[in-house]
Amino acid sequence: MDKPLLGKILLDHKEITEDQLNKAVEYQQKEGGLIGIILVSQGAISEQTLVKYLAIQAEKVTST
Asked: What is the rounded CA–CA span in Å between residue 50 and residue 64?
């Protein structure tokens, strides 16, 4: 089973806006990198939020 996308999880939990995700994805396509790190560097989420949702993402992978 594919792991759920971090951006989608953050959107679903209203941690980021669609615009913030689009900007991060655009940056990722041009420069590369991990979406979570990009969102932190752009100030969209904190490092603590990133860690929290990476754990949620990992749980969804192992529970499916």
From this structure: 21
